[in-house]
Amino acid sequence: MTPATSTAAPHGTFEAADPHDAKKKFLHDAAEHVRDEGHRAFVRKALGGYYASRDTQKARYRDWEHARDAASLAKWSAVNRLDELLPKFVANFERNGGRVHWARNAEEARDIVLGLLRAAKAKAVIKSKCMTSEEIHLNAAMEKDGYGVVESDLGEFIQQLRGEPPYHFVFPCMHVRRDEISDLFGKHLGTPPTDSPEELTMIARRHMRRLYVDADVGITGANFLVAETGQISITENEGNARLTAALPRVHIAISGIEKVVEHLDDLAVLLPMLATAGAGQPMTCYNTLYAGPRQPGECDGPAEMHLVLLDNSRTALLADPEQRDALHCIRCGACLNVCPIFKNVGGFTYGTTYQGPIGSVITPHLRGLADWNHLSGASSLCGACTDACPVRIDIHHHLLHNRRNAAKSAPSRLERLGHKVFVMVASRPWLFALGGAVFRKTLWLVKKLRPPLLRDWLATRDLPPAPAASFRSQWRRRS
Amino acid sequence: MAPRVGLAVASVLERLGHTCEFRSAQTCCGQPSFNAGYWDEARAVARHAIGVFAGAEAVVGPSGSCVAMMRVFYPQLLTGTPHEQAALDLAARTFEFGEFLVEKLGVTDVGARFPHRVTYHDGCHGLRELRIKNAPRELLRHVRDLELVECDEPESCCGFGGLFSVKYPMISTAMAEVKGGSLARTECDYIVSSDPSCQLQLDGWLSRSGKKPRTIHLAEVLAGADA
After folding, report:
1. Would you say residue B186 lies in a domain?
2. Residue among A40, A400, A426 minimizing CB distance to B30
3. By percentage, how much of chain A surpasses pLDDT 90?
4. Average pLDDT of span B133-145
5. Mean pLDDT in chain B?
6. Residue B227: what pLDDT?
7. Domain contains B194
8. Which of A267, A329, A438, B159 shows the smallest number of beta carbons within 10 Å?
9. Residue A1: band (very low, low, confident or very high) from pLDDT cuts 50, 70, 90
């Protein structure tokens, strides 16, 4: 089987050629994106529906805030005992007949998967939604080695045909209009145009059925790893992950090490929270627990089941007590859905696997603070993300922590000087008052001269007239 | 930038029988340095502010943002330093203006009249760091001849974010378009705010885009100001 389309290095055009240029690219792409008002309105409208359904579902909880506490506690207690629970999960998973492969970084993870494909003499690979595979750039590596791979999640399939990475890590093609999808299918699959979402889904489904049967290897992600049973929990809406995991001879799951939870019971709160916070659903349509390959006497299921457990800087984040809770993330996408930055700059502008607020928090840990701190800066710190997070990650305060760490490790000399001057003025009331007077007297000149620092502000916004007299003098006159 | 706001706060509080004091050693809360990551610098400003407000029964600020800095972030900033206790002590005495009236004084009707259609803009620091949502609305509902309407993006940020508005001007402006547009669609006469920094951003954008409503501070409405 050949790949559905040429997706050679689909990330090439979406990432800065030089990672040190990530900030420059972000600023450029953000400026470009905000000019597309039609697109911004489209994304806002798409997420407007989410707000309504999320609130309906939230209202069905007896106490949503207590549910957040419970979900957060389940993740907290697992993340803080990873050293105990990971080995417990692995022992139980292997007892069920699965095999675990440890990967310290993206390269090791890719090599493990490619090794498994070689051992399986794979000719065709089918894949369900897996952000961890995006993180390690697996598709490009598989294609480079000549393996055809098809994404079976509808959104991911559309993105694969478009040659784009996911726009949003839960709704990969939320930026694509229905007529564009129809055209895309017409071009690649030769189907007639349609405006019906059901028909578009059926087109992809009909195309996919044969591929599940033909594939030697199915690759999936994992939402939760249940330590006490050794099971992998996968959540999906289309049933494609079930077919991907069950029909091919070999099933490979890829997961970050932070996905462990201790008890099966934990899923009782985590699965509905994931669906409600992320997509405004009561539950995702299919929630499946995978407990190893086909057992003796069973008539279906894969002959082999492998799990690649990826670190890729997660242990470094675990070692940071201040931001460790970022590992609670269940990748529901709620923080993206409510983020005014995400809604205005779009998913591609980030240049990261994980977009939006949680991406801005963890990308500096995954890929280096020096190159990625600008994402923490690109926030008004409004805190909508933190309020939306079902597992209570202190997202917007971690953006502050990243800013502080960046200012400590690599301060900009000019910026630091600015803040030193500010402290000097703000610690001396007479100087502060003098500064105010100078400001009032020269504001008209500033508006006229447009100094570099204020030029961009003044390009889109006016400044009010300076008050005639200071608060201090008016207060004195008053008493 | 807006001396009238401070004067309006004093006028409302004095009308209610309280004594207001302005300590001339007062400067800035230090949030610009804190948000930029320069915490050593912010700490120096915080120590100054803690000294200035020592002994005051209550510290009332007409800005959710400055109050959040003092109440939420000073204790974090000074944790493990000799000033930690003083920071916690100040935090317990510091209130945002509308919150102070409703939650601390138990007042919802200050005897104001403002014959206009208004909408209220929640500043993010007030809304999410201080959890103030109801107090300003409760106060506005008791203002005579005032009509209060809600916009369709009630909890969206205006995009100011301090230095963010200068460092990422295109994103900041896009956010102003969304929030400012939503506020303007209410066809109100005034946008009431409890944050002069949001006012700077919103008025700046509204004025440039030729939209009609302007912001007014909650204290000015309650002081009976009718611009």
Report:
1. yes
2. A426
3. 93
4. 97
5. 96
6. 43
7. yes
8. A438
9. very low
Are β-strands A124-127 and A217-220 bridged in parallel, bridged antiparallel, or unpaired? parallel
Name the band, by pLDDT with cuts 50, 70 and 90, for residue B225. low
User: Is residue A462 a contact partner of residue B208, using CB atoms and an 8 Å limit?
Assistant: yes
Q: What single-letter DSSP state applies at residue A15?
A: S
Q: Is B194 exposed, middle or buried (0-12, 13-18, 19+ CB in 10 A)?
A: buried
CA neighbor of A375 nearest in space, from A404, A393, A355, A389: A355
Domain that holds residue B177: 117-222
Q: What is the DSSP string of A253-278?
A: EEEEGGGEES-TTHHHHHHHHHHHHH
Task: Please indicate whether, in this complex, the C-beta atoms of A463 and B204 are within 8 angstroms of each other.
Answer: yes
**Are B205 and B121 in the same domain?**
yes
Bridge partners (DSSP) of residue B204 are: none
Please give the structure tokens belonging to residue B202.
């919103």
- Residue A22's contacts (CB-CB under 8 Å, 6 or more residues apart) are A15, A16, A351, A371, A372, A374
Q: How many helices (H) and strands (E) are present in chain A, helices listed first?
A: 23, 10
What the block records as the tokens of A99 is 């095999």
Residues A349-374 have a mean pLDDT of 96
* Cβ–Cβ below 8 Å for A475 and B207: no
Q: In the predicted model, what is the mean pLDDT of residues A246-265? A: 98
Which residue of A427, A447, A470 is the best one to mutate when testing the B interface, meaning the one whose CB has the most B CBs within 10 A? A427
In Å, how far is A432's CA from the nearest CA of chain B?
Answer: 6
The backbone torsions φ and ψ at residue B3, rounded to the nearest 5 degrees and listed phi first, read -60, -30
In CATH terms, the fold of domain A12-315 is Rossmann fold (3.40.50)
